[in-house]
Protein 1
Amino acid sequence: MKVPAWWNAGFAARVGRMAFAVFAAGYLLSLALGRPGLDCFGQAMLPDFTIYYVAGELVWTGREDAIYDWDTCWDRVRELAAQPDEESMIFLYPPLDAWLCVPLAWLPFRVTVWAYLFLNLALALGLGWWVARTFFPNLAAARAAFWLFAGSVPFWHTVLFGQNGTISLLILWAGWRLRQG
């Protein structure tokens, strides 16, 4: 199949940049129009992150035995993030992960959630650029791949849910790069 002449790296990069801008502006507008902790559709801000925060807070306050208690976690998540009942979850990770989440609880939730959002976004973008430059030595092709990644639904799903996938991917990628020499 022949690729149309208009579909080139520059066009692909523009499409990706536009998608990135639409997602970013849409999310910020949705938060501005919603209630604190919820977007205008009633979805919680970074729901997965909230679970990590609660687990870290429980360990930090000496209640590590409660990290798997449904009522304790559920009540605290709803209190912090104003999440609807059907959206609330509990901590489902190994106890070591709860200990790793303790630094999240050192600051107020609202400060930490915004910091986590922007740090996760910066980490995801930086990792995306690192991968693109590794696999696409041509700068135009690397830019196109990067912006198509940054404008994709899976990228935004990971960032906006507050998932730890970006951190895990960074660790795996760094390990792979170290093995490459």
Note: Residues 132 and 176 are 15 Å apart (CA to CA).
Protein 2
Amino acid sequence: MKLMNACKLFGLLTALATPGLGNAQQTLTLTVTGVLVGGTCDVNALDRLQDIDLYPVTVAALVSAPGQSYRPKPFFIRLENCAPGLRNAKFSFNGMPDEHESSQWANTHARPAPNVALHIERSDTNVVISPFSVDPRTHSIAIDSVSRTATFAGNVSYWRKNTGAPGEGGVTGQTVFTIDYD
């Protein structure tokens, strides 16, 4: 599974020109609107783009019961050099939800394993992380005021869907994470 950081930049530049009379005069009104941000953190360079190779699993291991995750693999998103005064980093994750179980992530492999999706959860709380379009909740972590760092810890795993028996094939998925601060 690949994790990519998303950045948001906002700004608006509008120019309104008022035609003058002949060559005598022109009036130009320029309106500029922007947003001042109180500060952010740096995402550790190794965590911006991650390829997470799941542990191998046999089809037989997935047949026991649908609606379960298998062989969780940890991942981390480390924040560094956080601006003084920031208290929390709020993560949201987005990507393609599974078409039958929307709280899980779609298996987008070219030759997908049938009836297998991807499952992401916070490792500290075991709360399921669903695509933001399905569940618009953010996942807040505290920023240490002394070290000015924070670490989001999660697990990604195979998910045995309720739609039929699993079979051989690949499992691939992708999510983009966005961070808001307070």
Note: The two ends are 29 Å apart (CA to CA).
Protein 3
Amino acid sequence: MPKKRAKQRKVNNLYLTFKFVSLFLALSLFAYLVLSLTNIPNLVAAYTSQLALKVFFNLNSALILNGQFPLIQTPNLLAQIVDLCSGKIELAVMFGIIFASFEKRMGYRVKGFLLGVLVMLAFNAIRIATTIYYFDVGALEWTAALHDFLFRMFLIIVIVTYYAIWYYYDLPRKASKRSST
């Protein structure tokens, strides 16, 4: 009998994993398609990055809104905030992973996603501002590597860390509710 339960548990876990991954992929794709229909994420990234340049680096910049993509002009650089800079992919991934967590209450997922958006926007603005600042001061060699690889990895690490904290934050509260009833 225990072997049968173990096998049933494996099948159930496999089904839940398949359901989560399928839902995650579908929701992420949907979110990315919706975000791709608008230029708002690019504008938000540009405005928040301009603010981060001033706050963290005391670097004055001008925001230019001509054309499809916003530009940030510093004394020595003109940076274009394109779709990959906007955080659209990261926001879509966060949307997919949080809303695919079907075992969580919908209200908890909505609050988690909204807070996650704020976290991602803050980290993305710091990422862009740091890149612009170091390009502006002329540290081109390592800034290119920083921009192309390290910061992308950093944003993925932020998503995974945020999701883990969000997901496991709810577990102790669920356990205490079960034990009190």
Note: The CA atoms of residues 23 and 55 lie 39 Å apart.
Protein 4
Amino acid sequence: MIYFNTTNNNFFINIISLHKFIVSILLISAVFGYVIGIGKLYLFHLFLVIYWFFILISYIHIKASVVKSIKILLLFLLFMIISLFWSLNLKNGLTYLFYFLCGYTIVFAIINYAVDLDKQKFIFKILAIFFLLNFFIGLLETTGYFRLPMSPYYNTFSTYPSGFNGNLNNFGFVFIIIFPF
């Protein structure tokens, strides 16, 4: 359980555990995606706001080495923001900018948290558990006897897996990307 204790070094230890908890929940909710959400608002979006809130109030500190390592991403993000001025459809431009910000936040959260090997192993374990769960759900879906109720293929007799991804192509892409690990 996470608690705040302001005596001596316990406060610092609890802030680190809070950082670990927030990053864990952010990554887990990112893997679940649309499965835990209402319409187009996913639980991941809520934890995205919470993550940035803790950065803004300085509970999660941004390391200088992280800023150096993501300079190219920040430059690309700046270009995307500027490109909104000549975008033919501002709504689509803002939507895709939001998608990139979601992805950049995941990359940023991992880089900012996993500064040593133990933290990298922790991130790997968390992601491995939930991606394996995703693939297990996909395997069950190939039998035709099980499909997640929020899947767009729920009322069909399709045996193609979609897992937590909601789309057959996305499930396949995630599987191919994760398979070597």
Note: The helical segments are 10-32, 43-56, 64-69, 71-83, 90-113, 117-142, 168-178.
